[in-house]
Hints:
Layout: H1 2-24, E1 33-38, H2 46-58, E2 63-68, H3 75-94, E3 97-100, H4 105-109, E4 117-120, H5 144-149, E5 158-160, H6 164-173, E6 181-182, H7 187-192, H8 198-209, E7 217-222, H9 234-239, E8 245-249, H10 271-277, E9 280-283, H11 288-294, E10 298-302, H12 306-312, H13 319-322, E11 327-328, H14 331-340, H15 345-355, H16 363-374
Parallel strand pairs: 1-2, 1-3, 3-4, 4-5, 5-6, 7-8, 7-9, 9-10, 10-11
Helix pairs in contact: 1-3, 2-16, 8-10
Amino acid sequence: MRKLIQNSILYIARAMMNFIYFFIKLFPMQKNKILLMSRQSDQPNIDFKLIEEEIKSRNKQMKVVTLCKKIPREFLKKIGYCFYLIKCMYHIATAKVCIVNGYVIPVSILQHKKKLIIMQIWHAMGAIKQFGLQVTDKREGNRSNIAKIMRMHQNYTNITCTSEVTKKIYAQAFQTEEDKILTLGMPRVDYLLGKDGIIDEKIQEVYKQYPKLKIKKNILYVPTFRKGKKIELEPLINAFSKEKYNLIIRLHPLDETKIEEEFLIDNQYQTMDLLKIADYVITDYSAIAFEASVLNKKLFFYLYDIQEYQEERGLNISLKQEMPSVTYNDIIQLAETIENQNYDEKEWKHFREKYIETCDIENTKRIVDYLLENCSINP
Length: 379
């Protein structure tokens, strides 16, 4: 009964949104307007910033609007979010191009003007773990009936990715044809590779605020988010000598695991900034692995819950097959590998070449080139 009521509420909400949107669509489309939308954070990420800069550098007559807002947890704030959705509807209805980096409710749920171009650039550089429509009816995913009602990941004109292998994964996750997925890259690759020297300035800021990071080797631990679970940190903390290494722990924004202050770096510095100062990067199923490979970092996978995670979430990549010399269930063995400098660079090179074909500083340019050449945007 509860499921039936929930489904009915969602169907009514979808119908109401489309009813309101029918009238909002009477506003004319602005052929020089590009909309960037996200619910991953309340601020635009580096991908959106670089796209906006690139567009405006081409022609200052282009109008770029950015809307970034997470769905709040508090009930009263959720009511306010409903009014924010109406604002989103207006900007979608009047834009020629809409770029998103995740599932955005009004983008997928509404019936749009036929001439609207919607590009999904996703918020991760690849997908070790399964996501989107791959994980419906799994512990960490949505129920398939809700995904259907909410039309999850519908309406995309194109999706960008960084390799042909990733294209096949995305086709499953978004349940779409491969020819809609374009290997144009991801703007953050340009940032990581130091285009315009932006990231190097951040590095100097980090060193100035945390001078200890210049004295010892830095190990950056970036685990993926586990829904409803805390990260097991104690074994990892105890595995490395504090005399020889600085251990930096950067958790997912939604993770509530408590961390001692000595292992933290101020959140004003992005994880991508911390990658630059890391000598070693340890992760598990996080897409940070792809970003680390772009920077040629010594990358290790600590999979202490691999069997459980495989059952509850599922994986697209078998790390033990592709990166066997740096994939461990036991943190002590991993620490010994770092201590003894046993690192197979051939594995890393193969991993990078396979999953990051767009490893240059032309990613943002390729995306904007595609939009300007194929989407009839008129400045």
